[in-house]
Amino acid sequence: MRDLPSRLQGKIPGPETGIEIKKSVCTICDPLTQCGLDLYIKDGKIIKVEGTKENPHNGGTLCAKGAATRQYVYHKDRIKTPLKRVGARGSGRFVPISWDEALETIATNLIQTKTSFNPESVVFYVGYPKVMRPFLHRLAQLFGSPNYMTESSTCYQAMAMAQKLNFGIPGAPDIKNAKCFLVWSANPFYTSTGLARKILNAKENGLKIIVIDPRYSPMAAQADIHLQLKPGTDGALALAMANVIIKEKLYDQDFIENYTHGFSEYQEYVQKFSPERGEELTGVPVEKIKEAARLYATTSPGAIMPSASPVVHHTNGVQNYRAVFSLMALTGNYDIPGGNLAEPVSYLYVPAGFTSRFEEFTNPKNLKEMAPRVGDNKFPVWSRLVDEGQAIYLPFHIRSEEPYPIKALLAFGFNYRMWPDSNFMAESLQKLDFIAITDLFMTESCRFADIVLPACSSVERKELRCYREKYIIYTQPAIKPLYESRSDIDIIYALAERLKIDDPLFSAGYEASLDWILEPSGITIEELKKHPGGMPVPNPIKHSPMNYRKDGFMTPSGKMEFKSLLLEEYSDSFGYEGLPAYHPPKYSQESSPDIAADYPLILNTGSRLPMFIHSQTFRLSWTQSLRPEPSADLNPDDASRLRISQGDQIKLSTPKGSIIVKANLTDIVQSGVVHMFHAYSQADVNTLIEADYVDPVSGFPGFKSLLCKVEKVECQKNRNQMQTKSDDLIRS
Known about the structure:
With 732 residues, the chain is an alpha/beta fold. It contains 30 helices and 27 strands. The protein has a 7-stranded mixed sheet, with helices on one face. The protein has a 6-stranded mixed barrel with strand order 22-26-23-25-24-27. A hairpin with a 2-residue loop joins strand 2 (36-42) and strand 3 (45-51). It is globular, with a radius of gyration of 25 Å. The protein starts with a helix and ends with a helix.
């Protein structure tokens, strides 16, 4: 064929070129954004990546991270074989070993820990991706340990706690039917491009959008009203909006009178937060507060879109979001079409219109009958509402050994830089007897492990996923696992066998377990295999809104709680307040003026960038090129005052320490605030945060409201030396 070279060059699939398209999903962003992938395969290798057009979530689109899938899969840093540490912990000296030796070593050490101490002395941890979570959770409980933990100790769970305290069951925004959309510190243009597309479509059809965000984000650029508040003052803004809604009698009187608890106390408290007081606390002009409150309250139905982390990454985080979600109750927008629907989860945290045994599979034991989890005594409301240990407290538990010692860690996708004062966590890891980590790449955290296992990516494994769009997919490997890598779930099932876990589902295998989980839905793995790109959920369950009218709310009072009875249980012992009370962040101009005198700027860490999801795509040339060096975002007015120009080296300092980074001048950030992305090993901003700088209810770190100062580094001779003193300590 004369046109064969051009067809090969154009990567045209067909028998002539030997190129075929295989379906998969991208799980770099997880769990709600597993975009469909069309992988062009030739000779067993991926040569091109596109989005799957028929996937209802991404509709053929991909973000920068998904577009870099080939770089991710074929990166030189992939771990090729199981490894055993032969040098000092943290030295990075390993030798290759067989899978049998690696798995047997892990099983032997975990059993020895269980025998010498207790099963709870072993921690089971999952970071990203989340596909293996229900299986490791089950393994941990059947092993006898309540200490299953995840990165959700800093993501999502505190937001969910705030909704559970108010309503019992969290509600997700029903964008399709909403007329008003209150986006509270979320930016789907960076985090979920498929969702961003749906929002833009809805805007074209008349959706009114209010965005609350300290940054002028791409989402804020789409807003009818943008409230650019000072970081950490979300609760004050929500209470000021409630003040307007109540004073002008714009609230849903029927809902308030019949389905809520504590409204009179809440109403009295809200009187303290006039729009004028709101402006004083948040920096948002009075008229904008009034305008946003009126638009949300009178444009019905209205949905609130929360974020997984930003609002709860403050020392007042849970109460901030409780105040925000109280607006949902004030306006009667909970569990109604176009509001926030309380749909049950189908699988892996996603409501997809089918019933499953996901929760039964994940929690085969009653946690109340097991030993206390890490953080139980420190964060009792977390333990009442979340079925995981609070991982942020783990380094303190390791050091104190109270009420029992932690001696071993089995982790999948572990990154110690996730912790505040990340070096404190790294030093705590040194105290463990045994660590095993599974990952795709040889990360800094892997250097602390005794055994390192090579995981494969989502395109190299089987994976069950589902979508809010009432869609489900069971992928098959598009390519064979590279090198000696294996799927995380296969590793868990192999360990279950060696740990002699007496469980018929682990014995039956992965697909049999999935069939058991899916059985109530009538969906089978055999049927899903016939639809490589996924399929609509057959006869999806239609959610019945306003179930609370007959079933009540899953709260202590059985009603929506403006005043939380669960929080009040701990008012004497922990100082928790039942109302969504506002207090400024612990380190702020209001709460610590003495510190603010020397550190006058607000440090907001972890603000999302479009090409990164935490540190996962740092190593990829395409994504790394967009911000190759650690940089802090400064408002040009602040930079001018400090005589700082674009690209200058600056010293970013808190009372805890300092790092050297580059200055990036941008109008996206407001004056008085410095934004710094996290997880850079060369300049880890989390080392500037105290390990116990956390929200007292959830244990979430106060990543997004500290006090800092910025100074231009005049001497340039250390331009290439951007390591912190504490990083040097770890390497030594």
